[in-house]
Amino acid sequence: MTSPTTARQASEQGRVLADPTAYADNHRLHEALTWLRANEPVTWVDSPPYRPFWGITKHADIMDIERDNELWISGPRPLLLPAEAEDAIKRDQEAGIGLRTLIHMDDPHHRDVRKIGADWFRPKAMRDLKVRVDELAKRYVDRMVEIGPECDFVTDIAINYPLYVILSLLGLPEEDFPRMLKLTQEMFGGEDAEHQRGEGTTEDLMAVLLDFFTYFSALTKSRRENPTGDLASAIANGTINGELMSDMDTLSYYVIVASAGHDTTKDAISGGLGALIQNPDQLARLKGDMSLMPQAVEEMIRWSTPVKEFMRTATADTEVRGVPIAKGESVYLSYVSANRDEEIFDDPFTFDVGRDPNKHLSFGYGVHFCLGAALARMEMNSLFTELLPRLDSIELAGEPEYSATIFVGGLKHLPIRYSLR
Ligand code: HEM
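That is the input. Now the predicted structure with protoporphyrin IX containing FE docked in place:
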């Protein structure tokens, strides 16, 4: 296969990177990624409806790219979308009506905007929030008791808990939570028929964005009139060089916080519990030594890798691992592959609750490193610290099912049977 300019290596295996169904089939996915790491770690992928890109599957290459945020920028193409959707977003952005969140921005604007919310995710804010998070964790474990002895852990528990945490941090009223849940799923689960709106067309996705805009425009107005000391008020009243953020940056901030903090954590929690059930020795080890919880949480996050990819675009001709990459071409950073890289992890396909060190890339790296990483860790810690001591037994009550997505995803159903106090 050739690109317009040079003959490029392009294997069949590279196409998994752009194939949502591959992410619902762990065996097929990891077989291809393992092959790519060994044989073609920088691979050219031309898989319509996506524009071609370079697939990057080695941990070290992803870190090098993310570290150099002048050579590699997010702006033009932060994640993989069909060409038609990329064009629609570009048109909207040029017209000043498109979503432009932190993940779409580059420094120095990115740095200024990130600073506005950053204090709300620092250790002090996390300590202040811990009581509320512990309370919510208890509420959801109690709920498991109420609905037991069987449930679908994803749809009954894991979906709601992180959303409640993040919407509590934002300061939104609890009666709005179900609406936010639906909107974030429609936005992030776009390739999966079960979650998408309508037929999942670009128009459907734009309608989801419009619903977000309508809701958060009203929120900005009310928080500017009456600041209430929550994250939503910090965003609504955030300034850069003494000026309020633009309406679009403000709206985009809400959207990224409400959406990035929710499905991702749900996937890490349910992927973590699924791994504990399928590795009973590791479950017993953790129950027997709860001081392993911080390492266990990291391992659950590595194991599940909820965010599959982000992209960067070259601002100059360059090369990765000796492969020439032209200015304007984009790289797809496969966090899923990096997290199974044999050069970084001993026995990468073993789920080990005591793994240390654990240099996973599930939260990315560099200036865009996940803003909510400490929050996600705390949420998971609280939930499993509440759940495990109360758990007498747990097993699968059906086949776990994975979502078909190339961006954010994981288990969409985890039927379980349990005995819980
Ligand atoms: C286990 C759960 C989570 C995972 C796996 C995850 C993963 C990621 C990844 C991979 C990135 C991009 C990093 C990069 O480009 O290098 C990111 C960015 C981000 N995440 Fe998370 N995230 C999680 C939870 C959260 C939570 C709870 C929040 C809270 C609101 C959050 C908010 C954000 C924001 C605002 C960004 C954009 C940062 C920027 O571009 O500067 N995430 N996350």
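The chain is about 50% helix and 10% strand.
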